[in-house]
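## tool: complex_structure
## caller: assistant
## args:
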Amino acid sequence: MWTILKKEVRSFLSALIAYMVMLVFLIAVGLFLWMLKGYTVFDLGVAGLDVLFQFAPLLFIFLVSAITMRSFAEEKRLGTLETLTTHPVSDWGIILGKFFAALALVVFALLPTLVYVYTIWTLGDPRGNLDTGATLGSYMGLLLLGAAFVSMGLFASVWADNQIVALIAGMALSFLWYQLLGMIGELPNLPFLSNMLEWLTLDFHYRSISRGVLDTRDIVYFASFTGLFLYFTKLKFSSRKW
Amino acid sequence: MSIQVQGLSKRYGTQWAVKELSFSTAKGDILGFLGPNGAGKSTTMKIITCFIPPTSGTISVCGYDVRKQSMQARRHVGYLPEHNPLYLDMYVREYLGFMGGLCGLKGKTLRQRVDAMIETTGLEREQHKFIAQLSKGYRQRVGLAQALIHDPDVLILDEPTSGLDPNQVVEIRELIHSLGKEKTVMLSTHIMQEVEAICNRVIIINKGELVADDRIENLRSKEQNKHAVRIQFATQVPLTVLEELGSDVHITMLQSQQWRLESNDPGLRQRASQLALRHNLEVLELVSEQNSLESIFQKLTRHVDHS
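## result:
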């Protein structure tokens, strides 16, 4: 697993994917925080990071799918999975190696935003008046959300025959579980389902963690969600029918 | 017994790719694995290398069952798949390091193995290039180096020389030949000269079934007491005339004036020419057929086709 992880991270770096992801994420979040009228800290008049934590998940859906789209689809096309799986590495080793490599990239993308956190912290009145609990919780939530998106992206990639299909399928799947289910629940003739569907969405649990309250139920939800999609990925991968 | 295959079968949907295949190899064997396209060569190799599971049968490599002790078995096998898949965006050294790392090699040992493999496969000048920049012959060497990096006891090569130019083919063959001294090599091909040049044992399969398994010399000598002659006359000759040759001669008509005669008698060619003189027939061509591996292959694989 370790060898796979290192190789994946190195290929992210050499293919410039890592830098692109970091840059796009930083710029997009920066735009919302400081530049785009109506959203910025100055317009809202509150020295908070709510805008960041509100838009980051949507950016993640796109960026994470872009990170994971090649993981299996490209190797299937090249045929390199055949060399990989005939070496002494277990299927879980391969999948987890790719999973943690993509997750590492998510962390790389989040790290530079700490600059914004510092800036907002200095802007507070009095200086340093920032809800630390909520900020920490939100970062934690983003990380868990990233892991869930990565697992879905890998799942899409193990099924897809090419990267574009993997990208679109990954994005669709991520969005479905992030918000769409909840939106479906809001349809007028489905009142009995609405609570359940909303509870199922990633967004619901993300918001819950963002408040700064670490609820074990949310952690368990994220862990089992990610684990389940990784397990589905493993099932498809081990069938050797690509 | 480095590779032992017992009753191996593999089914894709309703089609049997390999049916009840059994064979085994010993150390020092360079085994040529032959068969027409779609005979199940690649499938068999993929099963031995633990890439896909068999439908039934037991396969072991160096004593390790490929299903139950897959990880140990993989440690003893080096595999070059058909079409030689490589990560084109990696450097040669980086790629070999990665593959060695997968086999559990680390640090100094890994570097030494990478260096040694680069030397064995003659990649010194290309070692700092991207794999994408290499020509097909050099990529093939990278594939071989990758298969050899963990010093496996068994080497499985799926069409190792396909698509190479004649010089490269010779070089790769020499390399395989020298490797065969310490390892068991199993290579698939449909080029007969290749088998004659490097292998000491041949397995021929057709439609997933074993049709021959023998040392090359034995295969040849089995065919050597058969003598075949092709004769072409200028005019049409009735069968009754040819039948005068005797009952030991098997006669087949190839074209209206061309016949193929087969017998155990080494003097068959003389007898045929004497017959022609006796009947005053004009002979355009009279050749004895070479019993090459190629004809053995054709006979064995065609025979099954007709049945």
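## assistant note: Chain B has eleven helices and 14 strands. The interface with chain A takes residues 46, 49-53, 71-72, 74-75, 77, 79, 81, 83, 85-90, 94, 98-99, 101-104, 146 of chain B (CB under 8 Å). Handing back to user.
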